[in-house]
Amino acid sequence: MELPEIQLEQVTVSFEDRPVLTDITLTLNERRIGIIGANGAGKSTLSRLLNALVIPTTGTVRVGGLDTSKNAKQIRRDVGFVFQNPANQIIMPLVADDIAFGLKNIGLSKAERKVRVTQTLEELNIAHLADRESHTLSGGEQQMVALAAVMAMQPRTIVFDEPTTMLDLRNRLRFQREIAKLPQRAIVITHDLELLEDFDRVLVVTDGIIDFDGQPADAIDHYRQWSLV
Ligand SMILES: Nc1ncnc2c1ncn2[C@@H]1O[C@H](COP(=O)(O)OP(=O)(O)OP(=O)(O)O)[C@@H](O)[C@H]1O
Q1: Which of 89, 92, 162, 224 is in Cβ range 3.0-4.6 Å of 146 for a Cys bridge?
Q2: A single Pfam family, by name (predicted)?
């Protein structure tokens, strides 16, 4: 799968005149990218820039050459986002319908939707949840369903905002294996540092800048040292 390059050029994001990200220039080409850093450092904001959920106050973000401030709709089809709180993401009362929802929007037939939903649920080992009512699921089950809904759309990049917070050990390990298998690019914001061991690149965000950018072990070491002070 060919992965679209993501480019940030001199990006600043301010909320009510307070800068949250400052002058970030970055090119992302890797398949497995982690984002770590302290609470409030700007990780979620950085990740939301990548699918036009946040538009830079100044500077530009391009995904496969398309500017997020001008091509939001197209970019959102290619960059999926799994939110930290899955309840914000689950729309339909029944699990299978929720996963099929986005597929209808992109024009898949009923038969195609059915196949894609079954396939995705089986891949994630949650086929048994297909006919459940979404609001009766546990937090971890909801997180897996939210992931399935995004995976079913087959975007080339998937951004995960703290994906393992509600998962038990078995589901966390499953999730880690799923990420390793994904043909797509995964960009994962997490405080679960072990999740990033085999990643290609890890960014450390501190007070709105990229404080470190490199291999997982070095980035984690940098972040640990910073956290000790
Ligand atoms: N829509 C918004 N309006 C105002 N302030 C915001 C908004 N979104 C984020 N912020 C602020 O921007 C800063 C960075 O937030 P962000 O969610 O990006 O941090 P984070 O690194 O993901 O933190 P955490 O690890 O706690 O989830 C915080 O101070 C937050 O309060």
Answers
A1: 89
A2: ABC_tran
The number of the ligand 1 atom at minimal distance from the alpha carbon of 191 is 25
CATH architecture type of domain 6-228: 3-Layer(aba) Sandwich (3.40)
ipTM field: 0.95
The one-letter amino acid at 145: V
Question: Does residue 20's CB lie within 6 angstroms of at least one atom of ligand 1?
Answer: yes
State pLDDT tens for residues 161-191: 998 888 889 888 988 988 898 889 999 999 9
Ligand 1 pocket, 39 CB below 6 A? yes
Single-letter amino acid, residue 150: V
Taking every pair of Cα atoms in the chain, the longest distance, rounded to a whole number of angstroms, is: 57
